[in-house]
Amino acid sequence: MSGLDLSGLRSGPSQVWGAIRLVPLLRAEPVTDLRLHREVYEDGPATVAAGGRTTYTSYIPHGFVADWTGDGSPAAAYGSQLGDGRGPVDCAPLHLPRKLAQRRGKGRAPGGGPVSLRFLPLHLALDGYLALHFGGPSVVWEEWTRRAVREGLSPRAETAYRGGQVRGLGDALRIFEIHPDQCGVLVYAADALAGAFVVPHPDDYRALHPSLLHDLYGELIHQYALYSRVPVPEFTSRITAEYITSLAELRSAAERRRQEWEAQHDALMAGDLLDASYDVRQVYRMGRFRLSRFLPPFALHRTQHIGETITDGKGRVVYLKTFRLSDKQVRRGHVLRQLARHDWHPGDTAAAMGITAQELMRRVQHLGFEGLLKEHG
């Protein structure tokens, strides 16, 4: 288990539009040997070939292409297409993906030139969540059906909302200022953290800023934005003029206020994301960078995120995209992990959770896994 190392990034002043709050993430020294650009999928079924005979069908408006160099020299970010060739998709089912990261071309470019990798933003993270103990029971205990052992948790599906359907997000992205050093953003709905987005370079962020409208957001975030009738408060900071006698003192006071905001935001508003430990699985090695996805500990009664990262050789986050799970999705992950930890034995699992076996079976059924149970289970 490990945390997210966002060293090199700092939180800027937030901007508010209705229930939406955007907190820019600023990077003083941009990463130049890894660049991201967007690949738009045109008209037709939302299907991406995943190698061999496997395809992944879901709501896929775009993929990200990461270009990096092996010798540390700058990598160019090629022109991003920001148009969406299809009509809007309000809400889409997500099915189990297979291979969602593909290298472009063969071998390494001569002279340490850029190499490319195409991956589907957020779908790497959703792959990890949907595949969580997908094989189902490892032992045919009395409560499980033989079909459950043979076919596992098939099919697994979750529902997500397109960013365009999150009330106020489109206006916020259109109106808000993009800072010169901005390399990311934290998106809040009714001051609940909806997701984080980080890229290597300010030019990448300016090109990919509108892509947040085509990202996936959970049902909880959609509801928070839809039903929140009171705008979230703007956080303002005041400097007492009587203590300021020079420009240097004014500059120092402004810097202290900035640091206070950053510390309070990171600890209070983003603490559940930044302070948590994650189960990180590497997906692809890209020179000195690593593309990985992560799952939370599925601790109950806590805000939990899944996501994907690209980290450098020191483990610092260069790219990040997260998806906030609903309470029910956290409970699903929690129950599945407890079952797998105890070889899917209902009695042992229930004892470890401090409940009865009958209550565990009721929870399994309530969480949508009734297909695993025998009729008398």
Describe the protein in words.
The chain is α+β, with helices and mostly antiparallel strands and 377 residues long. The chain contains ten helices and 18 strands. Strands 1, 2, 3, 12, 13, 15, 16, 17 and 18 form a nine-stranded antiparallel β-sheet that branches. Strands 4-7-10-9 form a four-stranded antiparallel β-sheet. The protein has a three-stranded antiparallel β-sheet with strand order 8-11-14. Helix 9 packs across helix 10. The protein is globular and about 80 Å long. The protein starts with 8 loop residues before the first strand and ends in an 11-residue tail after the last helix. 39% of the residues are buried.
Task: Name the features.
377 residues; 4-stranded antiparallel β-sheet; 26% helix; globular
Biggest sheet architecture: 9 strands, antiparallel
- The H/E string reads EEEEEEEEEEHHEHEEHEHHHEEEEHHH
Radius of gyration: 22 Å
Regions with little confidence, pLDDT below 50 for 5+ residues: 78-99
The helix content, as a percent range, equals 25-40%
Question: How many alpha or pi helices?
Answer: 10
Structural class by sheet pairing and helices: alpha+beta
Number of strands: 18
| N- to C-terminal distance | 34 Å
